[in-house]
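Q: Got a minute? One more chain.
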Amino acid sequence: MKKELAIFFTAIMFFTRIPCPKWIDHSGDVLQRCTKYFSLIGVIVGGFGVLVYWGASYIFPQNISILLSYVSTIWITGAFHEDGFADVCDGFGGGWTKDKILAIMKDSLVGTYGIVGLICLFTLKFFALAEISNQLIITIIAGHSISRCITTFILYLYPYARTDDSSKSKAVASSFKLSYLIFNLLIGLAPLFFFKTYWVFLALIPPFIAMLLLGRFFKKWIGGQTGDCAGATQQITEVVFYLSLLVLWKFI
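A: Always. Here it is, folded:
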């Protein structure tokens, strides 16, 4: 039990800024196992965003409350996945070979492609959430859990692309097991059962297709995935899920 708690707290420590007990370490073995809680981290992050939205809605208009909620999820994760998305934009936008792409993604500086990509991402996500008036609270939680759930397929289906040991995400982005994938599916899809209609499951199709296209793209250019690729996949599939809900609710 204590070992499983250590794995869970390691996941919290790695993917968020939430304080953890001092006895938690971050050994490679534990980091590999902590990915089994990736979807649960999404529920926690989404739940935090919902609490901020709920509190802010008593003081501010809806749009400001949504923006504050969105900012709070960026803060609690330390912009972990947004940073990966920006690195992917820079790497694949400015590199033409595997080595060059990986070198750019490893660079801590953010370039033009990354900045433009983040602006587009943030704008799409904000306006999508602003248009979702039906069950917004569960939508925020579902968006975070499902996008992380779908991202685990990237980790499972594609090999880790870097050959060196310099990446801090190597232990997390490699050696992903089928049992972890199944556990993430169970947790990640759970919020969908709180929607008023099961038609909502159709909204899983576009983000899953987006994940497959991204995986194929990563495989073509760098031979697999990295932690940055996983972060970018999480961000993109989250937005695609929100957009899918808007389209779904327009026709049902």
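A: DSSP finds twelve helices and no strands in the chain.
Q: Perfect, thanks.
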